[in-house]
Structures are given as structure tokens and as C-alpha cells.
Design brief:
The chain contains four helices and two strands, in the order H-E-H-E-H-H. The chain has a two-stranded parallel sheet with strand order 1-2. Helix 1 packs parallel to helix 2 and helix 3 runs parallel beside helix 4. It starts with a helix and ends with a helix.
Length: about 110
């Protein structure tokens, strides 16, 4: 979904800043956007569950392009288990990967 979003934004003339936890996937997205004639930079590895990585990504975007006009916060990793079976560690991992990373990146871009 992230690669298609990056391609769509670039096709519409956006200067895209991407990131990825997995280097190979992030580099493939970067190559696809550039091959299609789009403008994109990417920071990887980037773990958006870490506030410092979120701030580094925002700093990278602002340093590269001068501003952020749109924040498309698409990162997430869902982990599922039945309510009666989910361990606290599983819930913490889900919360970090679904809620915290949206908050941390939005907060970093807001400032």
C-alpha cells in the first residue's frame, strides 16, 4: 500500500519522503518512484515506533524539501489473538505498531 501511495503522490507532482523498517522494501519503493519519473527520497531503516526515528524522518524531510505539506501516515503492523488469549506483551506490541507510531510521527511533524 505504501509503494502505491508513493507512486500516486509522485505522479501528482509531490516530492515524496518515504521510510521503511525493511531496507530492501524501502529501496524498491524508491527505485519504482524514480523509475516512473517521480521525486522521492527515503530513510531506512526507520522504526516509527521510536520517537527519535520519527523526529529524524521529519528533520530529513524538512532538510531535503524545506517543508511538509501532507503527512500520509501509512505504517502499521497488526498482530492478532483472541481477547482471552492475548498476552500483555502482544497487546503492547500491537499498540506500539498501530497507535504509538501514528502519534509519534504526527507529533514530530506538528512541531
Amino acid at each position: 500500500m505504501g509503494r502505491e501511495a508513493a507512486l500516486t503522490f509522485a505522479r501528482e507532482g509531490a516530492m515524496v519522503v518515504g521510510c521503511g523498517l525493511y531496507v530492501d522494501d524501502a529501496e524498491a519503493t524508491l527505485a519504482a518512484v524514480r523509475a516512473a519519473g517521480g521525486t522521492m527520497v527515503s530513510m531506512q531503516p526507520c522504526d516509527l515506533t521510536k520517537p527519535a526515528d520519527c523526529q529524524a524522518l521529519v528533520d530529513f524531510a524538512v532538510h531535503t524539501f524545506g517543508r511538509i505539506n501532507v503527512l500520509f501516515n501509512n505504517a502499521a503492523m497488526a498482530y492478532f489473538n483472541w481477547l482471552e488469549d492475548i498476552l500483555d506483551e502482544e497487546w503492547d506490541r500491537s499498540r506500539r505498531s498501530e497507535v504509538d507510531l501514528v502519534f509519534y510521527l504526527t507529533r514530530a511533524a506538528w512541531w
